[in-house]
Specification:
Its main location: cytoplasm. Probably acts as a heme chaperone, transferring heme to an unknown acceptor. Binds one molecule of heme per monomer, possibly covalently. Binds 1 [4Fe-4S] cluster. The cluster is coordinated with 3 cysteines and an exchangeable S-adenosyl-L-methionine. This is Heme chaperone HemW. The chain is α/β, with parallel strands linked by helices. The protein has two domains: about 270 residues, Aldolase class I (TIM Barrel, Alpha-Beta Barrel), CATH 3.20.20.70; about 80 residues, Arc Repressor Mutant, subunit A, CATH 1.10.10. The protein is built from 15 helices and 14 strands. The strands form three sheets. Strands 7-8-6-5-4-3-2-1-9 form a nine-stranded mixed sheet, sandwiched between helices. Strands 10-11-12 form a three-stranded antiparallel sheet, with no helix packed on it.
C-alpha cells in the first residue's frame, strides 16, 4: 500500500487558511491538480496513492467525478474566504493512478468544475496522464473538444521484458497509435520513460529511447527507477529475486538519454525532463518547482498556497465520507517557515536549466560555488552572470550539489555565531 501521510498540524474541518496566505498572492501563479487514485493493476515499483478495484472498500469509482467537483467548489469558497484575489487557473493537471480509467465525460465534468469555480487563463495548459491501453481515438478527441491541451502517456519502455518487470500492461506497439490519435485531436504529447529497471541493459534502454524519439513527441520525461520501501519490488530485491539497481548503470543511461535527446532536438529544462523548445515545457510542473500556488483535489493530494501546505486523507472511502459531510478532506497541514522555504527553493531551482539566482544564497554558499565550478558540477558562464546552472555531471550529482550549498550556508552561519 502507499506510504503513510506525513505528521503535521491538524487541518480545520472547514479548510480555512490563515491570513498570511494573501501576502504576495497576486504575483503567484495558481494551478489545480486533480488526483484520480484508480488503477487496473498495481505495478510492483509504484508507491503512489492508488487503488485497484478490490482495495476501494466501499468507495465507488462512478461517484468520484462528482466528489472531486465538490472539493473544487469547496476550494473556491476557502480561497475567497481567505481574502485571496481572484486568480484563474494557469494550469490544470489530472494525475494518478490512471485518470483515463474514468470515462472521458468524468474528466470533462471535473474540468468544468475548475472552469466554473476559478476560471481558466487564456491559453491555460490542461494535461491528463494516460496509460496507452486506456484511451482510444474518440476518448482523446472528447478531451480536446472540452479544452484539454496536452496528454502524457506512460510509455515507460519499448522492450516487452522490461515492461513485464515493471508489470505494465500495454503493448509497446500501441504507442505510435495513441500518439497519432493525440496529434489528430490537436493535443500536445509527452512520453514518460523509466530507466534502470532490474535486468535492463544499456542497449535495451537505447531501444526505448529510439522508439520514443521516433514518435517525435513534444516533451519527454526520463526517470530513474527508485525502489520505494513497502513496494512489491523492494520485497523482491530483499529476497534476491531480482537484482538491485546499479547506480553506475543509471548514470550511463542518463548520459545516453541526454545525448540522444539533444541530438534529436530536445533541450533539458529540468533534470529529468526535456522538450522541443520552451513552449513545450510542462508549465504545471514548473509551477511546483518554482513555488507557485496550487489546489490539489482528491485522496492524498497535496496543496500549497502562500507557504501553507496541506494534504488530504488517503483512502477514497475516507475522502468520500468527508466530502459527503461537507467537510474539508485535509488530513494535516504545515506552515513553512522561512528556512524551510529557502531549503525547498534551493533544492528545486538548482534542478532547472534556468537555474538558481545566486542572490538567493547566503554568502557562505555563494563562496562555495567556485569549488563546484572547479569540480565540473556548475557551468562557469551562467555563474559569472549570477545564475547557478548544473553541468551534465552536476545533474547526475544534483543532490550532492544542494547538500554542499546548504552545508556551506550552515557552516558560515555557525562561524558567524561563534564570533558574537
Amino acid at each position: 500500500m502507499p506510504s503513510a501521510l506525513p505528521l503535521a498540524d491538524p487541518a480545520p474541518a472547514d479548510g480555512a487558511l490563515p491570513a498570511s496566505v494573501v501576502e504576495g498572492a497576486a504575483e503567484r501563479d495558481f494551478g489545480v491538480y486533480l488526483h484520480v487514485p484508480f488503477c487496473r493493476v498495481r505495478c510492483g515499483y509504484c508507491d503512489f496513492n492508488t487503488y485497484t478495484g478490490d482495495e476501494l472498500r466501499g468507495a465507488k469509482r462512478e461517484d468520484y467525478a462528482d466528489e472531486a467537483a465538490r472539493e473544487v467548489r469547496l476550494g473556491g469558497r476557502v480561497l475567497e474566504a481567505a481574502g485571496l484575489p481572484p486568480r484563474a487557473a494557469r494550469t490544470v493537471f489530472f494525475g494518478g493512478g490512471t485518470p483515463t480509467l474514468l470515462p472521458a465525460s468524468d474528466l470533462v465534468r471535473m474540468l468544468d468544475a475548475v472552469r466554473g469555480t476559478w476560471g481558466l487563463e487564456s491559453g491555460a495548459e490542461i494535461t491528463t496522464e494516460a496509460n496507452p491501453d486506456s484511451v482510444d481515438e474518440r476518448y482523446l478527441a472528447t478531451l480536446a473538444e472540452a479544452g484539454f491541451t496536452r496528454v502524457s502517456f506512460g510509455m515507460q519502455s519499448a522492450v516487452p521484458s522490461t515492461l513485464a518487470t515493471l508489470e505494465r500492461t500495454h503493448d509497446p506497439a500501441r504507442i505510435p497509435l495513441v500518439v497519432r490519435w493525440a496529434r489528430e485531436a490537436g493535443l500536445d504529447c509527452s512520453l514518460d520513460l523509466i530507466y534502470g529497471s532490474p535486468g535492463e541493459t544499456l542497449d535495451e534502454w537505447r531501444t526505448s529511447l529510439e522508439a520514443a524519439i521516433a514518435e517525435q513527441p513534444d516533451h519527454l520525461s526520463a526517470y530513474a527507477l527508485i525502489v520505494e520501501d513497502g513496494t512489491k519490488l523492494a520485497r523482491q530485491i530483499r529476497r534476491g529475486e531480482v537484482p538491485e539497481p546499479d547506480d553506475d548503470l543509471h548514470a550511463e543511461m542518463y548520459e545516453l538519454a541526454d545525448r540522444m535527446l539533444a541530438d534529436a532536438g530536445y533541450d533539458w529544462y529540468e533534470v529529468s525532463n526535456w522538450s522541443r523548445g520552451r513552449e513545450h515545457r510542462s508549465r504545471h510542473n514548473l509551477a511546483y518547482w518554482r513555488g507557485a500556488d496550487w489546489w490539489g483535489v482528491g485522496p492524498g493530494a497535496h496543496s500549497h498556497v502562500g507557504g501553507v501546505r496541506w494534504w488530504n486523507v488517503k483512502h477514497p472511502a475516507a475522502y468520500a465520507q468527508r466530502i459527503a459531510a461537507g467537510e474539508s478532506p485535509a488530513a494535516g497541514r504545515e506552515t513553512l517557515d522561512a528556512a524551510t522555504q529557502h531549503l525547498e527553493r534551493v533544492l528545486l531551482e538548482v534542478r532547472l536549466a534556468d537555474g538558481l539566482d545566486l542572490s538567493a544564497l547566503a554568502p557562505g554558499a555563494r563562496r562555495a560555488v567556485a569549488g563546484l565550478i572547479a569540480d565540473g558540477l556548475v557551468e562557469p558562464g551562467p555563474a559569472l552572470r549570477g545564475t547557478l546552472v548544473l553541468t551534465l555531471r552536476g545533474r547526475l550529482l544534483a543532490d550532492g550539489v544542494v547538500r554542499e550549498l546548504l552545508e556551506a550556508e550552515e557552516s558560515a552561519a555557525d562561524a558567524g555565531a561563534s564570533l558574537l
